[in-house]
Amino acid sequence: MTRSMPETLARVLGEGTVLTDAASLAARRHDYWMLSHVRDHLGASAPSPACVVRPGGVEDVQATLRFASAAGVPVIPFGLGSGVVGGVVARPDAIVLDMGSMNRTRFVDPVNLQASFDAGKNGLEAEQAVAEEGLTIGHWPQSVGVSSVGGWVATRASGQFSTAYGNIEDIVHTIEAVLPNGELVILGKGPRASAGPDLRHLMLGSEGTLGVITGVTFSLRRAPETRTVSAFQAGGMRAGFEFQREIIQSGWRPPVVRQYDERESLRLDARATACLILMVHEGPAAVVAAETAAVGELAAKMNIPAAPPDIVDHWLEQRNHVPSWEMFLQRGIVLDTVEVSAGWGAIGAIYDDATAALKAIPGCLAGSAHSSHAYRGGLNLYFTFAVQTDEPGAMEAIYLDGWRGIMEATDRHGGGLAHHHGIGRVRRAWLERELSAGGVALLRRLKHALDPAGIMNPGVLLPDA
């Protein structure tokens, strides 16, 4: 069946929509997950899919899912391939549904502060489209230039300016999606609703397992009137955490609040003598002036000295640089970033335990962290680990050891095991620790109700039964 399936699909969708050439298949075998690149490096890469479908519109997505559901063919949605937790790993019997071909700006409405896009729209291009009207989406993940707006929703993403503007669930107005049986649904209508459960949350964080997101409408903001920056140096991570807590719980909301441990501070700027804390303040000029003054006064009260503000300017210029995994793998270095979250009372212990676990791995070059998203009840930590080995065959085990140390430390202190990258494959064995056994069972029932044939992105999100 697999050999005839692409030809059958091509008859349904049209020849140019279904790709079977080797280059197209190879380019969509997996996303940017480090472990997929490790396996490529070792010659054990993921197989190519049976075919790639590049839909021209919603109708093509519907037709593809109807065909796949009837035939029991797996479908793997693919945005722009920037995911980092194994949300895309191809298999030889599967259709990869490449949404990057659906990239229209549907409308920009400056009166109601809304903008709507096809799900495959590049995130930076979407931001540029609304910027022409003096508006902003306010969502700035590091991957903004290489990720899609549908991918933001599917992975429940967060952006660098989230402390003021919110995460993707706070920015989304409407989600258009196709269910596994081909049915089109429009989720979300008014600026706020009390019409039963908010069904948008079925697709937020669904990672391609419950359907295919085909369109997203965002609730926008006007572009900020002014922007200024500030920087400080805390004597240690806990002192910095307490400074952040006082800022946020006092009611101030700098869009960017980032705190780096000593190792990452020195990597950011050689002038650092302690833990750097960077802030961006933007919005109405009067609010920015008041916030900047209040934060400065609080820093003085808590004995948190100022740091050169040009450090923040440098970060703003370089913040979206994404390294090439292959450059490290050629030197025998396995590395990754892992983001978690916790309440203020637990975050210090998680930092200590997780970095200690990373540094205990033989060959560890780096085990560090920074925080980048603050809330009234806590904040996130974004760990980085790098381990060097002269045994290529040990790379995968070393990689999993790094993840295990962070996950166990976070779980031990009651933290949240995923902040904004999603679950994919790398975290799915930990999902029960996050949702509870009953929560995972409920998610399985939702999955079966929407996707009884189990065709949507198998192997992602849900742990093995």
Characterise the protein shown here.
This protein is an alpha+beta fold and 465 residues long. It folds into four domains: 5-100, Uridine Diphospho-n-acetylenolpyruvylglucosamine Reductase, domain 2; 103-222, Uridine Diphospho-n-acetylenolpyruvylglucosamine Reductase, domain 3 (2-Layer Sandwich); 226-318, Alpha-Beta Plaits (2-Layer Sandwich), CATH 3.30.70.3450; 325-412, GMP Synthetase, Chain A, domain 3, CATH 3.30.300. Helix content is 36%, strand content 22%. It has 17 helices and 18 strands. The protein has helices spanning 5-13, 22-27, 34-41, 58-71, 123-131, 149-154, 162-165, 168-171, 200-203, 237-249, 262-268, 285-301, 310-318, 325-329, 344-359, 395-412, 431-450, and strands at residues 18-19, 51-53, 75-78, 95-98, 105-109, 114-118, 135-136, 172-178, 184-187, 212-219, 221-222, 226-234, 256-260, 275-283, 333-343, 364-371, 374-375, 378-388. The strands form four sheets. Strands 12, 13, 14, 15, 16, 17 and 18 form a seven-stranded antiparallel β-sheet that branches. A hairpin with a 5-residue loop joins strand 8 and strand 9. Helix 15 runs antiparallel to helix 16 (395-412). The longest helix has 20 residues, at 431-450. The mean pLDDT is 97.
